[in-house]
Amino acid sequence: MIEIILSALLLTLIQSWLIPMLLNLGNLSFLLSNRDEDFEFSTITKRAQRASTNLYETLPIFITLMLLGVILDVDLTLSGSVWIALRVLFLMCYLGGIKIVRSGIWVASVVTLIMMGFNIVATV
What we know:
- This protein has 124 residues and is an all-alpha fold.
- The protein is built from five helices and no strands.
- It has a single domain, classed as Four Helix Bundle (Hemerythrin (Met), subunit A) (Up-down Bundle), CATH 1.20.120.
- The longest helix is centred in the middle third of the chain and has 30 residues.
């Protein structure tokens, strides 16, 4: 299950740093600056930033549940993998501007976290 935790952290790094950087390679002077002045990002970059903010809201819960699973020897591999897959789909929908599907995927990811919690409680 440690691999799942590391995968979630890799997703966070890709989503919060790599994707926005790649979307802004044309603005290299801004990326290399102290960013003292405001800069108007593209729509897709703003979506990537909002998707990252959304990930930050549930990532601590996911990491906590996964660590509890490791400590209590509760296998959360499948549900952890599902959560990561849902978060990748959420990001793709957010970047693509697909609203309704994105919201459904978000709900599914939260339900997955709740199920993970229930799995831990049920085995204690």
